[in-house]
């Protein structure tokens, strides 16, 4: 996908994640530059629901904008810098305060896949504890390189990491898959919470099942594109309808 | 109902089940052909919210399309093939990832009718465990004849079966009843979950009550049509309004 | 309020209760005739969201329509007949499947007022068990005079009674208050469920508080009209907006 | 901000809090007059969703309107009078029946910050028990000076206080922050309830973290304005869209 089309998807990703309730007035989504793998694109500091293509900026891994920026940058852009640096396979990242996921980072039940669409959680969902890197007197924000590196280390080879008392980060091999995964992570959290409430033991997706489905999707759907596209078309239509209502057009 | 009207209902069923949150970007609904009981109709592989009458295809029980198809077929169409083959009384089938139903397939509480509108659950709601037919290293999908047969066996003479870690399947004597039942299955799951949270023992609909009401509806409402039609009119109006908003028309 | 205005309120009540999710495709609301206290008005058998003033019929306490009716009558109209007969103070009745209320009728926690707006629950919320009047092999419906009388007896002097595995009935001194109470009953059920989940003992509204607030509202707001009107204006606006969307106008 | 702009924000605050489900047909939001710190502005008694700039009235700390008022005043305006009197730092107050917050005032779990956006709860969230000031036979309403004073005393130096069996009160250093906090209080209640359901012990935001983030926001964002403005823009857009739908314009 050429960069101009990718930027269009990035704007749509912001609107979809807002309309789906994964992002609220905060959080951000980014995509790695296809030609310059040491750079990535994301909005300047703005509520995701209001992002337009003019707001997209190009950043390097030090968190610096390549060109002058109108307004300010997200203070937590280091999440993206350090994950892209550590994980060449990652092409897109979502950081959100996705509501039902937060309780899993502060209580005693590990987030695990309870249904097949959340197979990507099968590699484990570690919890990033900011006190470990920033001390007891911290501001809860991943707003510098050291904290970003520590988070990237905790994520490791996984697809999702929780940030205790804050939110989560989801990565993917392309932007549409990352967006779908961010939504499915929220869905899985709701389902798992309800299963816990019904009473366990819970019959989770086994590691073998998660792996088998993941491998098959990677093989039959280059970059998981087919399934992600089917979801994308529906989500985009919903997001655009919501925008028309919001803008009164 | 002539086949052309039935196809219209099938398109509407897709939109209703999407708008009600029973289907998301996945899942499918089908209807048996009234003149050729060894065939059925469903959409080609497409998000249910986007289905139009041009997308409806006719399939035989081997999962083959009777006429050439633009695009691909749902990989899980074997669910429909094998249930229609085993159950001549079934005229319509819904397979969904209906959210609140999934937790009942992975935890320790059996889905049972808690209110009269869910009387059709009274015959029992078995859970299909795909590991039993496809082994530990499976991809979670009912994507061949063997798995479809195993699921149909588990469903037996019932109206609903859960698929562990995946979703559920609901059948009915006509399409409007199947759609209503799919929605009521989700409603019942929500009510039962809340009753469990309040604390039991729970006063379920007795087998006699479920049977008495079911028999009465079958008698007074040919094919459960009257009640289903009252619901259908409302659901259709809602689904059409949602489509206008989505399409900006 | 003259009968013509009252009928307008009755149509609006149907739309409000549907839009608020208290009524779905079933349930009904009625109002006693101001000039003939042995008669009442309700819609013919129709989904509440679709009711117009042409659908309103006048009934006597035997459940017979005073004038010829296009279509059929609600099979559960005897709920209304027998409560109006037993309770001269009641001017309006809502029977619904209001979702969060149902679990309280089948589990082990009594519905009690947890916040001031639900003061009218303070007189107790008995559960009607249809098996007591209709035996084990019953169809769950209050569809004759005997069952209606039994339900009216269980309701007694209260404002709300639950129907086990079915729904609830709410009464009021006028239609706007009855509608508000039906909505507040659902709200209270949600709040109480959450309080139970947090863990008790729960600090309920005391009998004295419920009584004091109820007496004050009855005194300062003739027929509880002022508070009910403030709610009504908002609810009516929402219901009318929903109808425009549904009808595409 | 000049008083005319502030009144515009006050009207918008009413619409936002209604559209977000923090206020229903009841509850109120006020702002202190920037030039006369012994006065404040709020709507006359009206459902918040219907408030226009013509409905804004100016009140003194005895709860008297400075100019003649069309209609009546909120009976619970003393909440605002007494908090403004006791707390010179407070510039805006929201009193609501915000749904998920109510259960925390009647059960056994203290409302505490579970994620960083709710840092302002870190100073503690006391519960106001009206029986302590108004006796067992009370009407649950803070409708005089004595009760208002008692509530203000319980709130103390905090940002939020719960009213047992009634609702909550939230204060802020400006109107946009107060509105954001009222919404975040509801969000935090939902998150905390879910964490309790998953099972503890719960890893709350520590006092040091709440304090550190609060201090940083106060320093980098004069009056917490930057963050609050980003949220405000989104919320205002949503509220205005909802109003267009409600009014059919």
Task: Please explain how this structure is put together.
The structure is a homotetramer of 249-residue chains. Chain A has a seven-stranded mixed β-sheet, with helices on both faces. The radius of gyration of chain A is 17 Å and the shape is globular. The first copy, chain A, has eight helices and seven strands. The first copy, chain A, has a single domain (3-241), classed as 3-Layer(aba) Sandwich (L-fuculose-1-phosphate Aldolase), CATH 3.40.225.10. Chain A has helices spanning 3-19, 78-86, 102-106, 131-134, 145-155, 175-198, 207-220, 225-247, and strands spanning 28-32, 39-43, 56-60, 92-96, 127-128, 160-163, 167-172. Helices cover 43% and strands 13% of the residues of chain A. The first copy, chain A, has 249 residues and is an alpha+beta fold. In chain A, helix 1 (3-19) packs parallel to helix 6 and helix 1 crosses helix 8. Chains in contact: A-B, A-D, B-C, C-D.
Brief rundown of the structure:
The structure is a homotetramer of 249-residue chains. Chain A is of the alpha+beta class and 249 residues long.
Tell the overall outline of chain A: globular
| CATH topology-level fold name of chain A | L-fuculose-1-phosphate Aldolase
The secondary structure category of chain A is alpha+beta
- Low-confidence spans of chain A: none
Main sheet makeup of chain A: 7 strands, mixed
* Overall structural domain count of chain A: 1
Beta-strand proportion of chain A: 5-15%
Count of helical regions of chain A: 8
**Averaged pLDDT of chain A, please?**
95
Question: How many beta-strand elements of chain A?
Answer: 7
Task: Give the CATH architecture of chain A.
Answer: 3-Layer(aba) Sandwich
From the structure provided, what is the oligomeric state, counting identical versus distinct chains? homotetramer
Most extensive chain-chain interface: A-B, 39 and 36 residues
The whole-angstrom Rg of chain A is 17 Å
Helix content of chain A: 40-55%
Distance between the termini of chain A: 30 Å
Relevant CATH superfamily of chain A: Class II aldolase/adducin N-terminal domain
Run of helices and strands of chain A: HEEEHEHEHHEEHHH
